Please model this.
Amino acid sequence: QHLIAHRPHDAEAMLNGLIRYLRESLPKMRDSCSTLGQEFALASAYLDIARIRLGGRLRVETTLADELVAFACPPLVIQTLVENALKHGVEPKVGPVTVRMAAEAVSDGVDVRVEDDGVGLGELQGQGVGLQNIRERLDAVYRGRARLMLQPNSPTGVVATVHIPREAA
Model:
């Protein structure tokens, strides 16, 4: 409502972003499997909305090679990592901040990274409900062959990496 009254152009952009986000997410909410292409599109739509909400101080970088677009992955894993980056790293930081999403083929699967240059791990230390849900979903699908790793980013922020094996268990 504030945007409609004071920044109608941004309000229109946010509404378009919300529509895009809902189009990407609603049909897939009950799916047991998704693709990296679908998950990156969903997270990008979410980040477009966040960029407007954060007043333009958020920069987003995405790297997804064409050969990885159809790679199978559990739904909403990347989305949850992006939400965590925004909530725990980006929002508390003053000034500009960057979120990077990238996928890289490795010998036995794909590593998906969500990085931010926000405030860092702090008290979170990887024990949040969203991260626990990711670990449980990965374990259910891949039976211990997938993993979620968190580490500090340099000079500030967090790198969350999900290793997804080539084939489900």
Observations:
- Residues 65 and 104 are 8 Å apart (CA to CA).
- The longest strand covers residues 97-106.
- The longest helix spans residues 8-25.
- The chain has a mean pLDDT of 88.
